[in-house]
Amino acid sequence: MSLQKRIAALLLALALFGAFRGGGPRPVELAVPAGWPAPTYDFGRNPLTREGIALGRKLFYDPILSRDSTVTCASCHLSYTAFTHVDHARSHGIGDRVGLRNSPVLANLAWGKLLMWDGAVNHLDVQALAPIAHPDEMGEQLPNVIRKINEQPRYRVLFAQAFGDSTATGERLLKSIAQFMLTFVSAGSKYDRVMRGEAGAQFTEQERRGLDLFRRHCASCHAEPLFTDHGFAHNGLPLDTALNDFGRMRITGRREDSLLFKVPTLRNIEFSHPYMHDGRFKKLSQVLNHYAREVREGPTLAAQLRGGIPLSPEDKVDLTAFLLTLSDRDFLFDPELAFLRE
């Protein structure tokens, strides 16, 4: 046996001994912000542990998940840009392939229901499988990923620490990535501090006017405190005929779901451009201009958007001022969520 293999075997033995001696993986409880609804995620089926989260973090930033080892989860979901990308309209994958849609923001996933822009994924525990297998994203097959990971001594140690068994499986891989993503809790913005009544936290007059406008015109879909109702809506964007993306209808096959897309959270919107499912808007001002005067009528258009939203130039400024209060820099620059150099 080579020296490298001996060291790997020793590390694995130590990891298994440590897991046994310490009573196994150490449980972690997700901190639910005060005043928030209970999470919809069933932690009984995938309990959070420090070791599971650490393994998921390692996998999230490892290009081993892609076919040519060039793409990571973070390639499209950067921690400091609200776990999305900002350098192009639609996601890029292996071989510089371009995906169909803008990468969605990842935040507060424990409160989510259907995932992806069209609701194609119904559980966070299998979400990572979609980009891994997609030919325009990671372009890999799960059995190949598992084989590569089981060949890595470091991963055998991490799986032993997280699961008491050094063997990587598809279920364990996907659940550990889900555990890491469940820690993406954004609840530390100025808005949150004001809502909690923290000392010294208060809106400016402009921000308060913006909040009033938001509650009148936007909150029916972007409901507080998560700033999404987790539903699907047609927001009046005209169909991009080059992409022919009909949204939710691609999954359900129902005409009444034509052009319906997931209502995204507005948290950290300052950092999550470009906007919309296809990334067609680079600036927040373009988004507000769309809702004020460019909403395209259609049979599946959300009822509250018919005729557009009456916004004066002053209203747009006030609304923008409020939306900027949703920026949570503690979340965006949390070292526990960022890439970890070894």
Bin the helical content. 25-40%
Give the rounded overall mean pLDDT: 94
N-to-C order of helices and strands: HHHHHHHHEHEHHH
What is the end-to-end distance? 26 Å
Biggest sheet record: 2 strands, antiparallel
Proportion of strand residues: under 5%
Count of helical stretches? 12
- Give start-end ranges of low-pLDDT stretches: none
Structural class: mainly alpha
Radius of gyration: 22 Å
Number of DSSP E strands: 2
Shape, per Cα inertia axes: globular
Main sheet strand line-up:
1-2
Question: In terms of topology, how is this protein built?
Answer:
Blueprint: H1 3-21, H2 50-60, H3 129-133, H4 142-150, H5 153-163, H6 170-182, H7 190-195, H8 205-217, E1 232-233, H9 249-252, E2 261-262, H10 284-294, H11 313-323, H12 329-332
Antiparallel strand pairs: 1-2
Can you tell me about this structure?
Helix content is 34%, strand content 1%. It is an all-alpha fold and 342 residues long. Helix 1 (3-21) packs parallel to helix 5 and helix 2 packs across helix 6 (170-182). It contains twelve helices and two strands.
Highlighted features:
342 residues; mainly alpha; two-stranded antiparallel sheet; 2 strands
Short description:
With 342 residues, this protein is mostly helical. It has helices spanning 3-21, 50-60, 129-133, 142-150, 153-163, 170-182, 190-195, 205-217, 249-252, 284-294, 313-323, 329-332, and strands at 232-233, 261-262. The protein has a two-stranded antiparallel ribbon.
